[in-house]
Amino acid sequence: MTQPDNGQNKRASEIRSEVRREKLRLLISRSKRVTRDVLKNPMGLIGTAILIFFMFIAVFGTYLAPYKVDATKPGLFDSYLPSSSEHWMGTDVFGHDIFSKLLYGARTSIVVGTFAAVIASVVGATVGLFSGYAGGWKDEVLMRINDVMLSIPWLVLMILIAGLIGTISLLIIILIIGLTGWSATARLVRAQVLSLRERQYIERAKAIGAGDLHIIKTHILPNSFPLVFANTILTVAISILSEATLSFLHMRPYGSVTWGTMLSYAYECSAFQLGLHYWIVMPGLCIVFLVLGFTLLGYALDEVLNPRLRKR
After folding, report:
1. Which CATH class, in words, describes the domain spanning 68-309?
2. What is the sign, positive or negative, of the torsion defined by CA atoms of 162, 167, 173, 176?
3. Shortest CA distance to 228 belongs to which of 148, 142, 298?
4. Domain ranges of the chain
5. Tens-place pLDDT, residues 73-119
């Protein structure tokens, strides 16, 4: 019985390690190049600056807030206090400091938008990859289901699901937004996969006996990822707007402070009539600029990563 050659095994292990290191170097090099190209793009530069500002608030906002905020308990102050040196933006109906709530809401709004977008992208990319690569009747069935999802207005579907659930937590609202927003990503990824699977290197991989899972993992997914990543950044903006819309329609995440819930309560309590303009203006402006930041960065990434959009 032939014994395994330890020298050959060691050499093969060294080769695999070297291949992994080379892949890591190429990934780092490409990431640096993409970052440089994005920052050279005016939209990318402005979007990145806006997002850095809001990320700073999201990380350190709870420490910078002058007062602690607990959405499940009444505040320590009287309701509807006007702007003053103690309360820069006044207090809301619950007796919470509005400026402190604004800082607390940054983290929650970004978390909702990011996780909902990731869920939508993962589900959409999985469906698109399988549908585009499998083809045939599987592709037809999945795309007909996808067409039905696309034909139903996203907002209407979210409102229907949220209304059926009743009491909504932060996790539930993330799942609602994420699991109803994957269809556009699936269509986009499928189109990319249909183009990739006809390339010569895919045919060569099949000819030497590579399995479907290996081809998808090694060739299809890496070449589709830049498109998925750019689309995910844009989806974050839509997800943040979706949360604000649901909250404004009284489908608020219980026990959580978001800019959407602030707008909802401000509208219910007639903030403008009470003279508490900051209560409704500041959360609205924060949502607008945060969505603008993600949108500009998403378009810049799409322009850099999508060869058909690159400037010649």
Report:
1. mainly alpha
2. negative
3. 298
4. 68-309
5. 888 888 898 888 888 898 998 989 999 999 999 999 999 999 999 99
Provide the angle, in degrees to the nearest 10, between the axes of the packed helices 183-196 and 98-134.
40
Instruction: Look at residues 249, 119, 252 and name the one whose alpha carbon lies nearest to residue 173.
Output: 252
Q: Which two tokens stand for residue 245?
A: 């819309």
Q: How far apart are CA 150 and CA 188, in angstroms?
A: 12
- Annotate 15-83 with three-state secondary structure: HHHHHHHHHHHHHHHHHHHHHHHHHHCHHHHHHHHHHHHHHHHHHHHHHHCCCCCCCCCCCCCCCCCCC
The answer to whether the beta carbons of residues 94 and 79 sit under 8 Å apart is yes
Q: Nearest-CA neighbor of 276 among 38, 92, 59, 104?
A: 92
The CA distance from 312 to 309, in Å, is 9
Distance from the Cα of residue 221 to its chain's centroid: 19
Q: How far is CA 140 from CA 56, 126, 137, 153, 171, in A?
A: 45, 15, 5, 22, 33
Q: What's the number of CA atoms in the CB half-sphere (13 Å) around residue 88?
A: 9
Residue 67, judged by CB atoms within 10 A of its CB (0-12, 13-18, 19+), counts as middle
Per-residue pLDDT tens digits for 16-35:
666 667 666 776 777 778 78
pLDDT in tens, 166-181: 778 889 999 999 998 8
